[in-house]
Amino acid sequence: MIKVKTMAEAAAEGIDVEVLYFVGCAGSFDPRAQRITKAFAQLMDIANVSYAILGKEEMCTGDPARRAGNEFLFQMLANQNIQTMNNYGVKKIVTTCPHGFNMFKNEYPELGGTFEVLHHTQFLNMLIDDGKLKVDGDYYKDKKITYHDSCYLGRINGEYDAPRNLIHHLKADLVEMNRCKSNGLCCGAGGAQFFKEDEPGEKRINVERIEEALDTKAGIVASNCPFCITMLTDGIKAKDEQDNVVVLDVAELLIRSMGE
Amino acid sequence: MQQILFILLLGATGYIAYRQYSRIYNNIMMGKDYNVTGSSTERWKNVLLIALGQKKMFKNWIPAIFHLFIYVAFIFTQIELIEIIIDGIFGVHRFFAPILGGFYTLIINSIEILSLLALTATFVFLYRRNLLKVPRLVKSELNGWPKLDANLILLGEFLLVTGIFTMNGADKVLQAIDPGHYPDTGYLAVSSWLGPALFGGLEPESLMFLERTGWWLHILVVLGFILYLPKSKHLHIFLAFPNVYFSNLEPRGRMENMPEIMNEVKSMLGIEVETSSASSDEIPEFGAKDIFDLSWKNILNAYACTECGRCTAVCPANITGKKLSPRKVMMDIRDRAEEVGRNMLTGDMKYAKTQDSTGTITLNKGNYDDGKSLFDYISKEEINACTTCNACVEACPVLIDPLEPILKLRRYEILTESAGPAEWMPMFTALENNGAVWQVSTERDAWTSEM
């Protein structure tokens, strides 16, 4: 039983937490994404990280609102989050969602919210490098894993290595898709597409992407974004491959490799 | 006679070109201010590496190499063009040949070899467009003028090279007949054998006629090209440079902030606003509806676009058969800018929105209305299909950003028209009511109890 503290609780107890874990909407409410949240929280617990969440005080970062064109709603959400985080004197944020990561890194500073921001794949690398987290099991040794770059971590923020490094720590056999890194193909969820049906076309984007992943013959499709993971999982179902291929966040791979 | 004709042609071309290019400048400047941020060192570095050095072209080697042939040939031929202009004005022949000697031979040889490579590239490009039908080069937005435009330029390229070799080939033969008037150019890689092979044994009069034909063909294609560019996608040969220089240096993931909305929201939330902007009674329009609402950088992007379609080829929406094509968005912006610019030039007051109390009306960008907008070119279906994945931004060899105008159009759709995809409305409502993208009954931290 792990106790996840909120910033309010930590403040009441007079604990100065090192990092705020911003869980995000998907990680908080979506049952599939909650598993990623829990895996990451577990990893932080194993590494003895001093962290807390905002809990009920957390709001959507405003990414889907802003990308949909609803600047007003974005400003409402972002400014409230900034107020909350500044009140707690937050210095450092970690997210399990690249959309939140991008917002804090690139869009909140202009609004008065300046924080050090890490995506969980970057944070996990640091924990391993600092020796706080040990990944030495052979659970994924030589298993074929393909990795899907989320647009907001990869092409938009240039982080291609952190998640791949983690997969290398697992001694897995990383097979790249044709379109990877800066040429990676979107899963179809960004720009608030996740919340609407596709515009008329011949094919769904997630199906196009999963076909490429299936071409690698990897049994595991790894990613770093709860929305990508949902889209890719839907793609797997559309191709009726759910018995052969599994879509997992890198944090989930790590926790499984530890036999947790 | 030839001299007078040449000077007249040069003057006329200069005059028409000045008018055409000023018109384009004015069209670009119909856009809003654009804040050029970041270091100019980095901007010049981009010009050097990406515009001059074509770094991003080399993501795809085959077209990059052939494009490089034409590009380097084009730059080198400018040296010869200087000589042509001097010869044309002063009625001399190969002015640089005796002055530069061996160096002249080197330059002309470089031009000959590059022309040969450019000719190969021309055929390869004609093949790729018309026979191989590379998908991005045969998409529907290219039907009509854009396709013809691309082929016309390749034809022009062919004529130019033909001109060069006719001129040099005939000259080479004439050098042997009349060295007084035709100074020795030294051994030329192509013309020293092609000239005698094609034109050897012809009468000097025919040779002189051929030499002149080649010379005039060369300069006429060049002058024609200058006047043709403003109508063509090939304007990129000039505009790629300023376009790269002025490209956005801010992080890709940062959407342009809207301070007027930010400040309003901040004061609603009781947060002190640093700079209070004077409030006006006018109902504000947010986002972009027409050319005037885009930045001049967005319009410059559109004029710099050479319709290569690398953006569209990687667009996830386009790949999966949706209507959105980032290239089409850029082409539409240029077409609309052209339309508005044309209408403004007519001075016809039917395009003026209002007249003031004295009854005088002026036609300017603040007062323009032709009953149309960018939305007559770009449909909602197109802009609503964008996943903001930035693949188009990454793909463009000259750093055009098709995403920014798409997002500006979305802002207009949502903020000013209060329209948008119906499925977004429940998301907006949920965000408004409980700060989550879904209407949820559980608490945000419910998952912690399952740890």
Which structural traits does this protein have?
heterodimer, A: 260 residues, alpha/beta, Rossmann fold, 2 domains, four-stranded parallel sheet, 11 helices, globular, B: 451 residues, mainly alpha, Fumarate Reductase Iron-sulfur Protein, Chain B, domain 2, 59% helix, 0% strand, elongated
Q: What is the structural class of chain A?
A: alpha/beta
Instruction: Outline the low-pLDDT stretches of chain A.
Output: none
Subunit arrangement of the protein: heterodimer
Beta percentage of chain A is 5-15%
Order of helices and strands of chain A: HEHHEHHEHEHEHEHEHEH
Q: Specify Rg of chain A, calculated over alpha carbons.
A: 18 Å
Description:
The complex is a heterodimer of chains A (260) and B (451). Chain A folds into 2 domains: 7-127, Rossmann fold (3-Layer(aba) Sandwich), CATH 3.40.50; 135-257, Rossmann fold (3-Layer(aba) Sandwich), CATH 3.40.50. The longest helix of chain A is centred in the first third of the chain and has 17 residues, at 71-87. The radius of gyration of chain A is 18 Å and the shape is globular. Chain A is 43% helix and 11% strand. In chain A, helix 3 crosses helix 11 (250-257), helix 7 (120-129) crosses helix 8 (161-169) and helix 9 (205-215) packs across helix 10. In chain A, the strands form 2 sheets. Chain A has a 4-stranded parallel sheet. A 4-stranded parallel sheet of chain A has the order 6-5-7-8, sandwiched between helices. Chain A is an alpha/beta fold and 260 residues long. Chain A contains 11 helices and 8 strands. The model of chain A has no long low-confidence stretch (mean pLDDT 97). Chain B is an all-alpha fold and 451 residues long. Chain B folds into 2 domains: 2-245; 288-354 and 362-417, Fumarate Reductase Iron-sulfur Protein, Chain B, domain 2. Chain B has helices spanning 2-28, 40-52, 61-90, 96-100, 102-130, 145-177, 191-199, 204-228, 236-245, 259-268, 296-304, 310-314, 316-319, 326-346, 380-383, 391-395, 403-416, 424-434. The longest helix of chain B is centred in the middle third of the chain and has 33 residues, at 145-177. Chain B is elongated and about 95 Å long. The model of chain B has no long low-confidence stretch (mean pLDDT 94).
